[in-house]
Amino acid sequence: MKMKEGFLWGGATAANQYEGGWNEGGKGASVPDHMRGGSFKQPRQIDAEFDPNALYPSWEATDFYHHYEEDIALFAEMGWNVFRMSINWSRLFPTGEETEPNQEGLDFYDKVFACCAKHGIQPLVTISHYELPYALVQKYNGWASREVIDLFFHYGKTILDRWHDQVKLWLTFNEINTGAMGMGSVMSLSIIQGYTGTMADFPDDPQLRFQALHHQFVASAKLVKYAHETYPDLKMGNMDCFILSYAATCDPKDVLLNEQEMRITNWFCSDVQVRGYYPAYMNRYFKEHGIKVEFAPGDKELLLQGKVDFYTFSYYMSSIVGTHDVEQTAGNMTFGGKNPYLKSTDWGWQIDPDGLRFSLNEIWDRYQIPMMVVENGMGAYDEKGEDGKIHDDYRIAYLKTHVRAMEEAVEDGVDLMGYTWWGPIDLVSAGTGEMRKRYGFIFVDKYDDGTGDLHRERKDSFFAYQKIIKSNGEDLD
C-alpha cells in the first residue's frame, strides 16, 4: 500500500509552543505567554502579572523565531512537501485592536514563507491556534464577547490579502471543539482560548463557553466566505480534536451514552462548519443544560455561506465510555475510560492505530469532503544512548502503525489529502507546559528549567519518517 500521487507529508507546530521571541519584533503578549509550566499532576497556572521568579515556557519555546532557516532545511531533508504552522495573532496585532499590522511581524512571516518556497514546502497555516492576544481577554473577556469577531476578521483578512499567493491551504481555528468539552483538570483549554475570563480558579460556565464557541463559528464562516469570494483558489478548512470513544460494554445504555459523547465532543462543531447549521441533537443538549445561544441577525445565513472546503483533525488516542465503573485515563486535553486491550504512552495516552482507521471512515461517511490528519504523534521521555544519540523505536512503531491505518482507510475509500505529525521538532507541550514530553523527530536541547543551548539533533525517527515519505508510505518495514 502507498498513498496517492501528490499526497502531503509533513509536520505540524503552533507558534505559542514553538516560535519563541515572545517580546521581540514588536510582538504583544498572547494568553499562552502568561502561562507557567506545569506537569501531568500539576495544572498550568495563568498569571495576570508576570512573576520574575516564574518560568513561562512560551517565551522562548524552542525558538523557531531565530532558527527557522535551520529548521525548515531539516524539514526539507526529511522530504516534507507541507508544513503546518500557525501565525501568532499578537505578532501582527499586539493588542488585537490595531488598525495597521506590525511591520516587523509581517517581515518575519514573509521570510518564513520564502524559506518554505526555497525548499519546495507549501505552508498549511492555522490562523488561530490558541494565540489570542492577552489584551482581548482583559478588555472583552475573549471570545465571550461578540466584538472579537470583527477583530479576528480584520486579522484574518490582513493575512489572506498579504499571503494568498504563498499559502493556498488555511485552517481557521485549531481544535475548535475543545470549547464544547468543558474544563479538564490537567489544563483548562477554555482559558487559553479566552473563552470565560482572564484567570484560572473559576467555575466553568457552559452558557459562556457555548456562546463564545458560537462567536468563533461566525468568525470562521465570515472569513471563509471572504476567502471564497475574493480568492477562489484558496482552500479553507476546519480543525477538530477527534477524541474517539467506544462503548465500554455491549449494554445498550453504554452505547447510547457513547453516541451522546461522540455527538458533543466530535460531531457538533464540524457539523456546524461543514454542513453550515446547528444539528438538531443540540436542541435537547442545550435545553437540558440550561444553555441559550444568542444568534445575531444574519448569523444563520453566514454559517451556510461560510462552510469549509476540507476537514482536518488531530488524532492521538481513544477511550471508552460507559454507565458502569470505568477506570479513567488521561488524554489529549481530556479524560476517558481505560481500554484493557490497548497500551499507553508515558503520559497515559492509549495507543490505538485501528481507531484512526475507524475515525477516518466515520468522518468520510458523514461529510464526503477531502480530509487531512494534521496532528498525530506521541509524547515520550527520550533518553540518549551510550553513543549520545536518541534511538526512539517506540516513536517509530507508533508512526508506522498509524501510517498503515491511514492507508487501510484510503483502501476503504477515504479521500485523504495528507498527514502532518504533531511536534516533528521538540516543542512545549500545550497540556502541561513541559519539555520532557517530547514528540519530535528532531531533538532540541531545551529543558523544563529553561536551560539548554537549543541545538538540534536528528533522532532515529527522523530517518524512519524520511524513508516513509520517500516511498510515499509504501516502505513501512
Give the low-pLDDT segments: 183-202
Characterize the largest beta sheet: strand count, sense, and whether it forms a barrel: 9 strands, parallel
Mean pLDDT: 92
> In what order do the strands lie side by side in the largest sheet?
5-4-3-2-1-13-12-8-6
User: Kindly, what is the distance between the CA atoms of the first and last residues, rounded to a whole number of angstroms?
Assistant: 12 Å
Proportion of helical residues? 25-40%
- The computed structural class is alpha/beta
One letter per element, helices H and strands E, the order comes to EHHEHHEHHEHHHEEEHHHEEEEHEHEEEH
Topology overview:
Blueprint: E1 8-12, H1 15-18, H2 64-78, E2 82-86, H3 89-92, H4 103-118, E3 122-128, H5 134-140, H6 147-163, E4 169-173, H7 178-181, H8 189-192, H9 206-230, E5 235-237, E6 240-241, E7 244-247, H10 252-275, H11 281-288, H12 299-305, E8 311-314, E9 318-321, E10 328-330, E11 335-337, H13 353-367, E12 371-375, H14 393-412, E13 416-422, E14 442-444, E15 456-458, H15 460-470
Parallel strand pairs: 1-2, 1-13, 2-3, 3-4, 4-5, 6-8, 7-9, 8-12, 12-13
Antiparallel strand pairs: 10-11, 14-15
Helix pairs in contact: 2-4, 6-9, 9-12, 13-14, 14-15
What does this structure look like?
The protein is 38% helix and 13% strand. The protein is of the alpha/beta class and 477 residues long.
